[in-house]
Every structure is written in structure tokens, then in C-alpha cells.
Amino acid sequence: GRFILQQGWAQASLDLSPAVTSLRDRVRRGVTKAVTDAVKAETKPDEAHNATIRQDLIALCGPHPKLEERGVSEETCAALGIGYLAQGRSPLKGRIVFQVADARVTKKSDGQRVRVILSHLGRAVSEDDDAKYLFYPGFHKSAELYGQEILWLHEEAAAQMAATGSIVLTEGPFDVAKAFEAGLRNVVGSFGASLSTTQASKLAELAKTFGVTEILLVFDRDMAGRDGAAKAADRLADMGLRPRIFDWSAPVATTTIGPVNIPLSINDLADFSTQQIAWLRQRQLL
Q: What is the pLDDT of residues 63-110, one digit of tens each?
């Protein structure tokens, strides 16, 4: 396929077919990587800020045009636990629901990490709603990373962390979902333009386990995102991690007529098409 990063530069069209094929080939080769050591861990009581729950709201959810509009397929929804809650008494009714999960050692897991549900959050369907995101009372979002269970439990995620040497940190669940749709598995979200000490510690634990040397911060393009990324980078550096902030203003390619820049209409990771995300990964920009 082909895409144009900036409407004014029709001549800057880039061929994505080799990039997408290369990414898929690397993922397939990485699926066989063993992660037995990675899924074994010990529970630390002082890190269990959010207790596990039994309720699975996703079982009551279904598809919604908003998800299709944002380029998130049913397969990605099933993998991450995403759906539209049309009925029931939940305060998240009428919203797109994202399940928040983790990979933890339980009494019945024989010392290995397994997927557990921590909570759910609801994203407004309309941009006019007062509250863009709703969380259940008592849930501490600063204690978790959205999509963290994927990095711990999926072989493709382990393979991509090994291949790239990095974890991509973005802001919201839609950013993670769009990256997942594009084939990226080493991506987590911080639930906003900030990074807590607990979240940074979780990234440090993942980095140590999987041999990650860099945390790539892809926060939103706005001022809040830029400021948040700078502060998050300082926090990661204080923990001995190597942060790198995605440069929204830097050219992503150069053609015979000049540099190709990311158009101003793209403000976050979820605004990219899946082909663009795959192409950026192929060029080691993501």
C-alpha cells in the first residue's frame, strides 16, 4: 500500500509494502522465542495497589462504529478486552469499555504470572461529553500500565522487546490499541500525560526481565504531552533507564523534493494509520 504523510506533498508518497512484510516476518520469527523465565515472578505485597476482581464487563460488551472508525478490529478488541457497553447498571454504560489487566502470580498459578482483571474504564463515544474517561472509584490508575499483561505474557511481545531493545510508552488505551492493530506488541499506556514512580518501577522491572535498554515515549503532540514526556523521561533516567522522546517535528523521510514531516492533523499515536505505524517501526522510529 501507499500513503501520503502530508497532503501538500503528493510526490512524497512512500511505498509501505516491503516495510509491512518485513515487520510481519520479524514478528512470525519471534513467536518461537521462549519466555518461560519471564513469566515466573514473586509477588511483592507493597506493589499490589489494585486488587484483582472477578467481574468481566467485556462479556457484556459488543462492537461499536466508533471502534471501526478508529481502526480497531474485533480481533484487537478480543485480545485487549475492549467493547461497547450498551446495557446494564454500570456507570460505564453507553461508553467504550477498556479492561485493565495485569500479569500476576496467584495462589493457583503455580508461581507463574497469569492474566488477571483489575478494573474497567469507559471512554466517551462523543467528544462533547464532559468526562472523556471514567474510572471506577478506588482504582489507582497511577499504579498500572495499560496493556502491561501483553508484555509479560505474549511471546510476540517478548520477541519485539528483544529485537528492538525497547518498550514504547504512550498515553491512552486507544493509542495502545492502534499500535496493537498495527502489529506492535511492546507498547503500554500510562493513562495520561504523566508517569508515576510506581509505573516507572513497573517499566524498570519489564526492562530488566526482557533485556530492554530504552523506553520510547510517544506522548501526545500537544503542550501537555510534551511537558509530560519531559518529566517522565527525567523520572525514568533517575531509575537508571534510558528514555527517548518521540520527536513530532523531525522529518520521518527525505525525498528528492525535501523532507517529509508528520502532518499537523496527527496529534497522537492513535491518529496514525496502521500502515503508517508499521512503516515507522520498520524505520526504527517507533
A: 999 999 999 999 999 999 999 999 999 999 999 999 999 999 999 999
Domains of the chain: 2-282 (3.40.1360.10)
Q: What does the pLDDT look like over 175-230, one tens digit per residue?
A: 999 999 999 999 999 999 999 999 999 999 999 999 999 999 999 999 999 999 99
Query: Distance between CA 37 and CA 58 in Å, rounded?
Result: 30
Q: Which residues pair with 105 in a beta bridge?
A: 113
User: DSSP characters for the chain?
Assistant: -EE-SSTT-GGG-EE-HHHHHHHHHHHHHHTT---TTTTB----GGG--S--B---GGGG-B--HHHHHTT--HHHHHHHTEEEE-SSS-TTTTEEEEEEEEEEE-TTTTTBEEEEEEEEEEE-SSTTSS-SEEE-TT--GGG--BTHHHHHH-HHHHHHHHHH-EEEEESSHHHHHHHHHTT--SEEE-SSS---HHHHHHHHHHHHHHT--EEEEE--SSHHHHHHHHHHHHHHHHTT--EEE--TTS-SEEETTEEE---TT--SGGGS-HHHHHHHHHTT--
**258-260 and 253-255 strand pairing:** antiparallel
